[in-house]
Amino acid sequence: MPEPAARPLAVDGRGNALNSFSRLSEEEPPGDVPLPLALVALWHGDRVLMVFDRHRRSWELPGGLIEPGESPCQAGLRELLEETGQTPEEPLQFVGYARFTLAPDQRAEYGALFSSRVTEVHDFQPNEEIEAVCWWDLLETLPGHVQPLDAFLARLTQDRGSDATPRSDR
Fold first, then answer.
1. Residue 57: which of 97, 12, 100, 17 has the closest Cα?
2. Which of 7, 34, 147, 152 is deepest in the core (most CB within 10 A)?
3. Chain-centroid distance, C-alpha 80
4. What's the average model confidence in pLDDT over 94-102?
5. Can you tell me the distance from the alpha carbon of 115 to that of 42, in angstroms, rounded to the nearest whole number?
6. Is 61 in contact with 51 (CB distance < 8 Å)?
7. Alpha-carbon distance 117 to 58, whole Å?
8. Which residue intervals of 21-165 are DSSP H helices?
C-alpha cells in the first residue's frame, strides 16, 4: 500500500503548496526537481519586508527567477534591489530550500530562501511588478491578501537560527 502524501506546510487559494522546507547545504541543493527561484526575508527590527505584486494581487517576500549564470544568492540580491530598492547591510544568510507544487499543472520546484537585516530603509518607488512594500510584524492584518506560503517562510527566518550560514559574495 503506498504511503499517504505528507500534508503541505502551507497552501494558497490558487492550489499552490509549500510541501517541505530543508535546511540543507547551500552548496548541495536538492536535485530531484528544478531550482529556479530565490526569495529574501529582509528584516528591519522585528518586521519583515513584504512586496505587493501587481499581477498576483498579494503580499509576498521579494524574490524571483534565477537568471542564467547567477547563483541563487546573486538572484536574491538582484531581485531585492529591483523590487524594493533595498540593499541589505549585512551578507545574505542562506536559510534553506523550499519545495513547492505549483498550480495549475502541479509543477514541482524549489526556491532558495535567504535572510538579512537592515537598519536604514531606502525609499520605495512603485514599478511595473511591485505596487507597494510594507514592513510586516507577521501578526498585523495587511490590506489585501497575504500569500500564505511566503508568510510561512518569513516565520522560518524570524530568529535566523544558528544553522544559517553567512554569505560574502555580494
1. 12
2. 147
3. 10
4. 97
5. 6
6. yes
7. 23
8. 72-84, 148-157
